[in-house]
Amino acid sequence: PLTEEETPVMYEKISKYIRENLQLLMDRLDGTYCFWLHNDLMILKLAANISGNKLVSLGTCFGKFTKTHKFWLHITALDFLVPYAKYKLFLYGNHVLKSGLGQIIENTSQYQGVVVYSMSDIPLGFGVAANSTQECRKVHPKATVVFHEADIGEQCVGHEETLTSNEVIAKTYGLALFPV
């Protein structure tokens, strides 16, 4: 479980993207979810009783705490943020410059957490709005409109601290993995 210092830091980061819908993320129709800290990784999982020393990985990696106790969201949290996102931004292409901006939700404020979508409504990642909606209309086409935090390309590259399902099975049963 989280300490009293870690809980508000994590909730503050997540609420940048989903605001008051944070409670909806936890109390869902498909079960009761909770956050667990495992090896500095924050995991969202269905509530379960498993001894911490026997746990390899269970649930979805939501983010991690840095050594300075800041919380960083991982791209694997995107599927959980999308249904509750209050502020959205749609792109024509891959770059988050004004020239690549297709649409932005009204009343998005500067430094607001935003979920980034393609024009065909596919979630691509999340970041922080560099400008408000009104300022985005006036800035130069090469100006940055979103500061990158995470995108789906990171799932392809992977994170060394996030185990694959084969690695979890191998570690659980003491098996060796051989390259193909």
Automatic annotation (TrEMBL):
Q: Where in the cell is it found?
A: Nucleus, Nucleolus
Q: What is its main location?
A: nucleus
Matching InterPro entries? NIP7_N (IPR040598), Nip7_N_euk (IPR055359), PUA (IPR002478), PUA-like_sf (IPR015947), PUA_sf (IPR036974), Ribosomal_synth_fac_NIP7 (IPR016686), UPF0113_PUA (IPR005155)
Could you state a single Gene Ontology molecular function term?
Answer: RNA binding
Kindly give the Pfam families that the UniProt entry links to this protein.
pre-PUA_NIP7 (PF17833), UPF0113 (PF03657)
Q: Which residues form a coiled coil?
A: none
Domain PUA residue range list: 85-153
Keywords annotated in UniProt: Nucleus, Ribosome biogenesis, RNA-binding
One GO cellular-component annotation of the UniProt record comes to:
nucleolus
Q: Which GO terms describe its biological process?
A: ribosome assembly
Q: Which Gene3D superfamilies match?
A: 3.10.450.220, PUA domain
Q: How does it assemble?
A: Interacts with pre-ribosome complex.
Q: Which family does it belong to?
A: Belongs to the NIP7 family.
Protein purpose: Required for proper 34S pre-rRNA processing and 60S ribosome subunit assembly.
Can you say what this protein is called?
60S ribosome subunit biogenesis protein NIP7 homolog
Q: Which organism is it from?
A: Nannospalax galili (Northern Israeli blind subterranean mole rat)
Taxon lineage = Eukaryota, Metazoa, Chordata, Craniata, Vertebrata
